[in-house]
Amino acid sequence: MLRRLFAFAEPFILALLSTVLLATLLPVRGVAAAIFDIITDIGIALLFFLHGAKLSRQAIIDGARNLPLHLTVLATTFILFPLLGLALAHLPMLPPELAAGMLFLTLLPSTVQSSIAFTAIARGNVAAAVCSASFSNLIGIVATPALVALLMNRTGSAAPLSFASVQSILLQLLLPFVVGHMMHGRIGGFVHRHKKWVTLVDRGSILLVVYTAFSAAIVEGLWQAVSGEMLALLILLCCLLLVIVMTATQALGKMMGFDQEDAIVLLFCGSKKSLASGVPMAGILFPVAQVGGIILPLIFFHQIQLIACAIIARRFEHGAQPARA
Q1: What mean pLDDT is predicted for residues 127-152?
Q2: Got the DSSP string for 178-223?
Q3: How far is CA 235 from CA 61, 76, 228, 289, in A?
Q4: How far apart are CA 189 and CA 187, in angstroms?
Q5: Looking at residue 59, what is its pLDDT?
Q6: pLDDT score, position 31
Q7: Measured between alpha carbons, how far is residue 134 from residues 102, 173, 209, 229, 269 in Å?
Q8: How high does pLDDT run on average in the chain?
Q9: Which of 19, 111, 127, 257 is the most exposed place for a label (fewest CB within 10 A)?
Q10: Which residues have C-beta within 8 Å of that of residue 189, sequence separation ≥ 6?
Q11: Which residue has the higher pLDDT, 103 or 161?
Q12: If DSSP codes are grouped into helix, strand and coil, which group holds residue 155?
């Protein structure tokens, strides 16, 4: 029964893990790596163009009507999460690259597709979930690089945010997103009618970035630097992070006086982190050889959040109100 709740995500999870395995066994090198970098850049631009095309002007207008909910989701995403990330990044047992990855994970925007899907399953306010998740991703294009510059540079976890990085963010992320949004009236209907193809492009772009990033990391000796015990610790920390944030979002929902439908939106939109945004951003903000290690915590967190949210959404669907994640 649970399998049906996240069947939409399962093929992608398998594809993601298979991509990491492929990069481990057959990493791309040399001239081929340079070609893959160019193709990856094109894929990232197309990915954000489609994200922009899917967001309607009316969704932005409608979203402003539930401002307290959206501000609470944004506060959880871009304030609570980063504070927890700073604490985790200073754990002495984590090597610098994985510590940077844990911190980077907490600086990302919320997911869109899965946040809306789980809100619908849990009988929450779907319209508000669409607005909150879309706002989070739109703001994240600017907020995430700014937080990386503010927090990761000060902790020594990343190279300074250079003009070239800012230019790449503007050209590869923000510009395609804005152009896609401006063309929503012309192609928005086409995008919504062909969701399967859009999803294929969306996930294909992510897999391409993951393969390129992990190939570079494998060449630099990623698996020699990360032990099985370290991977187990990483999974444990991702689980702990999710439990803390989900517990906090439930407490915030009660404190803000949200009804159950809006509280469900806060729970799912406020506790998620976007693989779709995080992987491309990491490819722009960090040196190629570091990206594989940086996104490793994000890949684990992505799987954990899908499984946990599927279980919780199912409990809400049957009328349960879990006190904890």
Answers
A1: 86
A2: HHHHHTHHHHHHHHHHTHHHHHHHHHHHHHHHHHHHHHHHHHTTHH
A3: 39, 21, 11, 22
A4: 5
A5: 64
A6: 85
A7: 23, 15, 22, 37, 10
A8: 81
A9: 257
A10: none
A11: 103
A12: coil
Compute the average pLDDT of residues 319-324: 53
- 70, burial (CB in 10 Å: exposed 0-12, middle 13-18, buried 19+): buried
In the prediction, which pLDDT does 60 show? 64
Using alpha carbons, select from 161, 98, 14 the residue that is nearest to residue 298.
98
Categorize the per-residue pLDDT at 7 as very low, low, confident or very high, splitting at 50, 70 and 90. very low
Distances (CA, A) of 61 to 55, 113, 130, 204, 250: 11, 20, 12, 31, 26
CB 291 within 8 Å of CB 159 = no
For the chain, how many residues are written?
325
Q: How far apart are CA 32 and CA 21, in angstroms?
A: 18
Question: How confident is the model over 249-263, as a mean pLDDT?
Answer: 94
Instruction: Show the tokens assigned to 233.
Output: 């610790």
Please state, in angstroms and rounded to a whole number, the distance separating the CA atoms of residues 25 and 296. 17
DSSP 80: I
Contact 130, 102 (CB under 8 A): no
More confident: 308 or 63: 308
Q: What is the dihedral sign for C-alpha 213, 216, 219, 220? A: negative
pLDDT for residue 313 is more than 80 = yes
Q: Give me the amino acid identity at 207.
A: L
